[in-house]
Write a structure and sequence with these properties.
mainly beta, 13-stranded parallel beta sheet
């Protein structure tokens, strides 16, 4: 499997000189080299290449960011922000990789596993107080 393609080889590419305004929905990988403004909901992976800009909220299974995202991101598996990539918005994901030279401005929520009522609440300290993760 090549980077930028799903297991069936399907992908959609937003070219360097293309701007898309609106909502993008789909199940194949999305490669953004241009600009997207609106909302992205992809069942697989979103790749934002160097020079690509997403001014949108993004909901995907995985996302790799070498360009920029201005908006909130919800990812089911993993986000990787490579050197030169940036996010201005909130991130919600179970796994996050921020490489040297990448930047994030916003909140990060990695506590996205469903609560199991049979285990103690891990956000409570021994004195019963709760921890929200924000200071």
């Amino acid at each position: 499997m090549r980077i930028g393609q799903d297991k069936d080889g399907n992908q959609t590419i937003i070219g360097k000189t293309v701007t898309v305004k609106g909502e993008i929905l789909g199940s194949e990988q999305l490669v953004v080299e241009g600009t997207v403004e609106g909302r992205i909901t992809i069942e697989t992976t979103v790749l934002i290449r160097e020079g690509g800009l997403v001014k949108a909220d993004v909901d995907a299974n995985n996302i790799n960011i070498a360009g920029g995202v201005v908006g909130n991101i919800v990812v089911k598996d993993k986000i990787e922000i490579v050197s030169g990539g940036y996010v201005l918005g909130d991130i919600r994901t179970p796994r996050l990789i921020v490489n040297d030279g990448a930047s994030v401005k916003g909140t990060i929520d990695m506590d996205v596993k469903p609560a199991d009522s049979s285990t103690p609440d891990s956000s409570k300290s021994s004195d019963g107080s709760t921890y929200s993760g924000n200071s």
